[in-house]
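Re: beginner question about structure tokens

> Can someone show what the tokenized structure looks like for a real chain? I only ever see the sequence side.

Sure, here's an example I had lying around. Input first:
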Amino acid sequence: MEALEKVQQLKADLDSFRPLKPEAEARIMQKFRLDWNYHSNNIEGNSLTYGETKAFILFGITAGKKPFKDYLEIKGHNEAINWVLSLVKGETELTEVFIRELHTLLLKESSESFAQTPDGKPTKKKIEVGKYKTLPNHVLQPTGEMFYFASPEETPAKMHELIDWYRAEREKTDVNPIILATFFHYRFIRIHPFDDGNGRTARILMNFILMQNGFPPVIIKTEYKENYYGVLRLADVGELEPFIEYVANNLVHSLEIMIRGAKGEDIEEADDLDKELALLEKRFVQTRNIKEKIWSNENVRDTLYLLFPNLIKQFVLVCKKFDRFYLDSSFSIKLITQSIKNLKTKEVVLFKKLRKELSEDTSEEIGNLATITVVPKVSKIHIPEIIGLQLIYDFKTLLNTNVGNEFSSEIDIEFDRDKYSIISVENEFGEDKPYLTPFDYEEISKLMKLISNTHKENLEKIFLIQNSRN
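And the corresponding structure tokens:
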């Protein structure tokens, strides 16, 4: 595969810089560790943001409203990673004892969770750290079908077989460590040996194998977890190549970061900076001495400067992914005002400036944005001039079908007396904020995910209708 070849080329480049300077290596591994802790736990439902994860690991700072359990997960996961990193450069063997000790560090302490009996009745099960499961942990699929992992009775033998298989494969002269690590991850997941923590354990074990072979860890990012689950489901039906390619492509990304760090270059990624700046911006705004956060021209304009460019960029980029299914598409922004006569020139200039900045910033990805349309709206309130705006992405003429030819994604921004709202009716999303308080990275990402899922589900329905007619 092309991705595997690129990995080997980058690995050769990285080896040319070895041994890395201790300070450079420590900085690179800290970034990997922070990303790994955040993404691997967030995939499994942990509520801590990237900034909160970083603040907790680096400085021990906690946010009062987040569950204690989430901090315990991060603490255990970080200790497990540090333990593995301390063993990578040695001759530590991958054994069942190693895996159970890793699981103990990861989950920290035994606990209870809700479960279902085989006949569907609610029950509780005890999650024992470092011990194989005692109850089935099969998963009910959205289709209504049950996906079966190894039974508790089968698990010890299956784990013994897994370790024997790994040792035999590792000794082969032509073994590819990336394929070996990927297969190990998948075979471990198919057993699902523990009552909880299987996904996190699998990803740590995969990275342990990779790092023992001189590669950096692979970070499976939470915003792309559906792709991760998708290639795992393909592996379940015998198609393992997409999973190998997925891991290899992520490894390319990690190698590129490590090479930049080895050269002394900046290793921060665009999304890292966006997240941190969004959090910093939020703190600045929250600590400013704002006398009035009410509906006013000034507050509306300042709020839009904080919100507008990133929201539009993310919205258009998400919608643009669906262009391939349609013959035509268009993006428009509608500015809703009390009346065209009352709209001051500076309000129009604001939107033209924002549009120009956005176009220059994303021209390669988005192209030219549509002209802003001013829509009059009757109201008894005379100020401010701007009541709201609409972001609309229209899709027309669905390819290869005569069913459901049109689709629209829309975000409405409404300005009220003491707050503004972002609403997306078809996606059942509605959130309010005080003026001058921006929506953060996670909140915008949540909306974008809803928009893309709604469109994808609509296309899937059309496909089913079309097939039923044929």
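Each token stands for a local structural state, so reading them left to right follows the chain. Strands lie at 111-116, 122-127, 139-140, 146-147, 326-337, 373-376, 386-398, 406-415, 420-424, 429-433.
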